[in-house]
Amino acid sequence: MPADGRLGEDGGPDAGNAVRFATVQAMGRDMRHSYGSDRPGARARVLAAAVVLPLLLAAVPLSPALAAAQVAGTWLTESGNGKVRIAPCGDLPGAGGEPADQLCGAIVWLKEPLTEAGAPKVDARNPDAALQQRPIIGLPILTGFEPGDEPGVWEGGRIYNPEDGETYKSVITMKDDGARLEVRGYVGLPIFGKTQVWTRSE
Description:
Number of helices: 3
Number of strands: 8
Radius of gyration: 22 Å
Strand order of the largest sheet: 1-2-3-4-5-6-7-8
Distance between the termini: 21 Å
Helix content: 10-25%
């Protein structure tokens, strides 16, 4: 999936951005033609374009690829004990089986990666005995997130807590221009849950 902000081909995942770009170009040409003209209404058209343009940019949603690029990266958990890399599921080796265009996250660093016996920590509390020897580092804990209706919101996902072996529904929300990430895990409805704040670690 493209994450460099390039315009997509017609009908591709970035088609909405292509439409927005073409419209902005057309409005820009009109503004350049009208600016400084003595024709009646020229200045009014320029002012109208200046008002409408920001509304147009806000009205066209980002494509899933561009939205994923905004939240992708490495995040330090609220406790400071771990870091999670967030990326399209297809880019995370441990997230096999998840749709490639959804968003996933895997643990990539632990403050204390070893047990008291000096062995790498594993997913010992997983309710599935067959998974209890999975290393914690590399373990996918965020799966199945899709863009929400609001910008910067990803929902419909799940978060796995290796500390208790439980999986919760989850929604994540970017804050402070992408510097912070609110990660909420819940049971049933979002109001019945808990939110952690992660910070970028890049």
